[in-house]
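For reproducibility, we list the full input for the protoporphyrin IX containing FE complex.
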Amino acid sequence: MTGEELLDLTTVMTGPRTEPGPLIADLRERDPVCWIPGLDAWVVTRHEDVRLLCNDPRLTADASAHDGYIAPATTDPRAARLLAALPFRATPADPESLGRRMVHRTLSPRAIQRTRQQIQEAVEEFAAPLRRREDVVDLVGEFTKPISTTVIGRLLGIPDDGEIADRFRNLPRAARNVRPFLSAVKREKAERSGIAVFEFVLDLVEARREALRDGIITDLLAAGEGNERTTNEDIVSVVAALVATGTNTPGNGASRCLLALLKNPDQLDLLRRDRSLLPNAIEELLRYDSGLVAMARYVLEDFELRDRTLKKGQLVILSLTGANRDPRVFPDPERIDILRDTRASIAFGHGPHFCVGVHIARSELQLMVDAALDFLPLDARFLEDQIQWGSKGLMSQLKRLPVDFGG
Ligand code: HEM
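The corresponding predicted structure, in tokenized form, follows.
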């Protein structure tokens, strides 16, 4: 298998094209800790193993521990730090890391409750025109994607219009973490893309007083003031990490939730009849397919797992699809059941790297799907042959979801 095929593999892992990810199901039973030579990586597919490894100090999320690590070409050490996806990926994994402490206040459940109104407004803006439509609507391009970008922009305090807004909207969309499993071409693209985000955020932080409305950046700067340990550079790296991880994930997740519901009309009906099921429905839909295929880790010291020896410097791919569809934990896992007990799902990760944006992601997804239930005609039909898929790092992307509102 070649490096390029690996990227195909990451897409296959989520099973959008070849449901239900038969390759992963097969690996999970036959070879749950599997060395894939072309990938140059271990792929771990059982729920029990993935959960344990998320908490295992012999693994790190810091890509520079990989024995094939190629440092970013940039000579700017601040950009290099960002490209390695720090400050959240430090070794040892630290739940009290600077990044986590900094976002704790601004992305806590209570803070997000306050910004839920802001998210609701963004959803409403894009939902309103869709209520009158009777033609084909691309739910990604006209709904989930612009909402996701608008929400993160407003949370950061970026104005909706003007030069800054344009620059924000036009930031490159390639993967932004330079990881060893990317092909050389994709790594270069990721580096360029990461640097563009870094420079954008640097300018924002430096120009904050004039350029920004209230938002996370002003909160972080206020929190950092008087604390000589928090520099502007720290804030830039935290904000850039949030932009890199939080801009597309909710939109991509929401469009996949909508596609899964359209494919499962019984579940869609159930939800239409009882909206109180929405929070658990979102967890179930993300368990089934959030768009994030896997989590990457690197071995810090040799150790054994299921009679395999994982060696220092190797890459370990923890398959989210494998874990979240493991029949040992989720009976009949390929079936979407919005009433299912979803507590064991690790769609938002597990352990010290658990998603810091989880509360905002849940709010966004719930509000987007709720609004879609209102504007989607009862006989809406998705156009299977016009759906477009892509992939970016460890994320499978739904790029176009055309739905015929005319029935
Ligand atoms: C549906 C939406 C989302 C999903 C499914 C998701 C999923 C995940 C997962 C699985 C991880 C763990 C990665 C690992 O252990 O390697 C993670 C980490 C992270 N997420 Fe999310 N996420 C979502 C939305 C967001 C949003 C909206 C933000 C920011 C506003 C965000 C920020 C982050 C950050 C910064 C990390 C790294 C934490 C660390 O390494 O310690 N995510 N996310």
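Residues 1-8, 11-18 have pLDDT under 50 and may be disordered. The first helix runs from residue 3 to 14. Both points were considered when choosing residues for closer inspection.
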